[in-house]
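With this grant's support, we have settled on a layout for protein records. A representative record follows, to show the layout.
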Amino acid sequence: YDLGERNAALSAGLAHSTLTTYRGGKVFLSGYNVQGELGMTSSTTEYLLVENRYLRDEPAGFRMCASGNYHTICLDRDGVIFAFGTGVVFNSAFPIKIKGDLLTKVVVWIDTDSLTNVAVTEDGAVYTFGMVPGTDTWNPDPVLYSRPGMMFRTAMAAAQGI
């Protein structure tokens, strides 16, 4: 599948995948879309990569995306996180901005496992949202997991329950 430019990031969820392009900062997705994981409002399964039409007009473009079981989070080039998919966390079939402290911070890196999302800000602080590590509790708003200076690898391992 030729997108006409170099790929920046590829992420795979339970039954969907996300590709972010390098120069254009565009987000392409494919796979099952029964729970909004492609962020397209319909539940149509896409067998080929399609550009997310709701993210197309975001002026900054996107740096990376991460795919969970039934959701996707995307980081734009201004450090803002957009999320879509289903579950207690988002319940949105189209991209929404993550609220809370992260709206006033610049995020430089994101990741997700099946249920827990991690964001690292430019000052080195680590935030989690989604499934609270080690519990059965959902938190849709970002929670400061570690302050700047804590070893990042330790924070990521803890956030993933390792």
